[in-house]
Amino acid sequence: MIRLFRSLIAPATGAAAVAFSGCVSEGVPNAGGVPVTEVRPDQPGFVSGTGVESQDLVSISDRMAKAILGVPEIARAKTAPHVVLDPVVNNTRFPIDKDIFLIRIRTQLNSRSMGKVRFLDRDTMRALERERDIRLASERASGDTPPAAGFRGADFVLSGKLDGISTRTSQGTSDYILYSFRLTDARTSEIVWEDTAEIKKQGLEDAAYR
Amino acid sequence: MLLLALAGCVTSLPRRPPPPTGDPIVDGNAALETSPPKDRVLWDDRIAASALRVGRYGEARVKLDDSIAQIGGILGDSESARRARGVFHAESEKIFVGEPYERVMAYYYRGILYWRDGEPDNARACFRSAALASSLADDRPVPETYVLLDYLDGYASVKLGGDGADAFRRAQANAGNRPLPAYDARANVLVFAEFGQGPQKYASGRYGEKLRFLVADSRVHDARLTVEGRVVQLPAYDDLDYQAITRGGRVMDYILERKAVFKTVAGSAGDLALAGSAAAATRIYSENGRRSEGAEITAGALAAVGAVGELVSAATVARADTRCWNNLPQRLSFSSLSLPPGNHSLTLEFLDAQGLVCRELTRELTLHIDPGAPDTVLFLSELNR
């Protein structure tokens, strides 16, 4: 009888233990946190979305910088052409730091071109104008005739635009982003170079969030 | 065994926030410091709304960026989401990102701040993300949705020199018979207004498995701004109560319903087994005093099965997640106007359903327009928390 009793009670108790295991705190996930991991910016991290991410920024700005250096008007120029950066226009559904693409393209060009391209600083125009005015005033006060001073005009304007198409269905969320950049001759308004890159990402949220 | 199992449920004591000060931003930040990571977005959102209302835009910006970093990603397979779907864990164990109307508001507020910072394209991006967050993630017909998200999307496009006609048409379709004001590209003051108390959440059903929204029509229905004799109407274009209750069911509701059914079945099976055990126990000794071994075994086995059923039922958590962005407004409004540089005196009035002014809510304001500045954004809220 005892054997029979055991054969019935033991599984029942086991089942109860399994049931209870649902509320056993087998450990808060990542209770000790996740140690800081250095991730290459051209690699996707473990936090991701369908928007603009660092790996997109790196790959696209690298590609655009390489392409610009191959443009005949830049590559064969006798004197280093002066380029001004126009803020990127964001037509997507993702708020972005609009300057970050152009800053990276600029730094890539500066480091790779060995002085083949010069950039004009339009971000600090107010400060530059103030400094110029102070310098002119000081030269006038000292009786010198100041030279006609002015800021240099650009030979080319580099501009960019982000356009996107987003969809959301039962299959998930999908975002297509078209990155387009162009270099325009500031004197003739001729577009001397234009290139695009496109990235599509999609994902489906966990059922707990749907 | 039972004691051991229950002991396993005990974790370290939660940190307690300091006593409330009455300042929603201070108290919110204290709660954010001490609450578990799964509630971070909840506190970010609440603090951001409070900060916006008292003009602490930097604080609101930081909190909304933190919130959007969570809600803007794809919330894929995670440990907390898996637990929330599990039978023995509550839905509230998942990371809070809010229901669609709550996600919409995080983007909407961030959009206002981007516009205030002179970035209408990023503002537009936020309004577009908000519109996507409000859309249905399944193939049901789309109900009437927000007016302002499309309207502001188009307005930002117009301000950027683009064409806002498509977005305006969508906004007008959502607005129905009420004509929307045409975009004024030269307007330099954008007025965002909000009034009324927004939806709250509660759980109903036998086990609290049904998420429901507590909506009560707020007293304030409209607002108006008088600027040096000129009256600017601020009608309610969107109603968060309506958005909360008309979106339909969630996939999670189906999971919770199954949890509730499981809980009921396990409990019923337990009850039945215990009743059977009791009945069998009455037959262990027959009238002539003989002991029945079979009845004894049956009673014992059924008691064990019954206990397991009851325990499983008790351990099943079917309760819906009622964490709520509890300081949202009910109604949203917008208007634009042109004002010359300098200081301007404004009177803000809130109106009830009959169009009568709620006098105790009237406020006098001063607005400064910088010469040469891009759009000046004015955020007006009836709520003060």
Which terms summarize this structure?
heterodimer; A: 210 residues; alpha/beta; 6-stranded mixed β-sheet; elongated; B: 385 residues; alpha+beta; 4-stranded mixed β-sheet; 4-stranded antiparallel β-sheet; 12 helices
Structural description of this entry:
The complex is a heterodimer of chains A (210) and B (385). Chain A contains 5 helices and 6 strands, in the order αααββαβαβββ. Chain A has helices spanning 2-21, 54-69, 72-75, 100-113, 125-141; strands spanning 82-85, 89-91, 118-119, 156-169, 172-185, 191-203. In chain A, strands 1, 2, 3, 4, 5 and 6 form a 6-stranded mixed β-sheet that branches. In chain A, a hairpin with a 5-residue loop joins β5 and β6. In chain A, α2 (54-69) packs across α4. Chain A is elongated, with a radius of gyration of 30 Å. Residues 16-28 of chain A have low confidence and may be disordered. Chain B contains 12 helices and 10 strands. Chain B has helices spanning 2-8, 24-34, 40-53, 57-71, 79-85, 100-116, 120-134, 148-159, 165-175, 240-245, 251-281, 293-315, and strands at residues 189-197, 200-204, 210-214, 222-227, 230-235, 238-239, 329-337, 342-351, 363-369, 376-381. In chain B, a hairpin with a 2-residue loop joins β4 and β5. In chain B, α2 (24-34) runs antiparallel to α3. Chain B is elongated and about 105 Å long. Chain B starts with a helix and ends with a strand. Chains A and B meet through α1, β2 and β4 of A and α1, α5, α7, α11 and α12 of B.
Hey, which two chains have the biggest interface? Answer: A-B, 49 and 63 residues
Strand content of chain B: 15-25%
How confident is the prediction overall: mean pLDDT of chain A?
A: 76
Overall body shape of chain A: elongated
Largest β-sheet summary of chain A: 6 strands, mixed
Helix content estimate of chain A? 25-40%
- Strand line-up in the sheet with most strands of chain B: 6-7-1-10
Radius of gyration of chain B: 27 Å
